[in-house]
Amino acid sequence: MKRPLIVVLNGPNLNMLGMRQPEVYGRATLDDVEQICIQAAERLDVGIDFRQTNGEGELVSWVHECRNRAQGIVINPAAYGHTSIALLDALLAVELPVIEVHISNIHRREEFRHHTYCSRAAAGVICGLGVRGYALALQAMTDMILDENDR
Ligand code: DQA
């Protein structure tokens, strides 16, 4: 069987990781996060496609691209998680398993961060565990894909 492909999508301002509010998001850069994901994918024997954009429309288009190409989506929608019904609709449209990741614990922060639209499309949400949340999400997504293939 072909190796499953998991697409890892990152939303706005995550290109600023490392310099952006390190007391909230830590010192790891987006390149470090990509390396964490590449290493996790090698260990799990899955392929990944890791991307970041500041544009809502681009993020929506990238979700569409996953249909017929990927087996799962790991997404840190960043602020668009809290605001974008378009992103939710895209995630629902592609009919793929989705895991939502937030580096910070959004429930400990301002009230407007407590709700995310994306969560309605997500099998699970990982938040507050720092950048290691990405590796955990890839592990969980791989398990879910393998479980589905066993049926
Ligand atoms: C974030 C949390 C969001 O509330 C925020 O807008 C981000 C990053 C996180 O990873 O903790 O940009 O998604």
TrEMBL record:
It catalyses: 3-dehydroquinate = 3-dehydroshikimate + H2O. GO terms for biological process: amino acid biosynthetic process; aromatic amino acid family biosynthetic process; chorismate biosynthetic process; quinate catabolic process. Pathway: Metabolic intermediate biosynthesis; chorismate biosynthesis; chorismate from D-erythrose 4-phosphate and phosphoenolpyruvate: step 3/7. Keywords: Amino-acid biosynthesis, Aromatic amino acid biosynthesis, Lyase. It comes from the Bacteria. Coiled coil: none annotated. Pfam families: DHquinase_II (PF01220). Homododecamer. This is 3-dehydroquinate dehydratase. It comes from Gluconacetobacter dulcium.
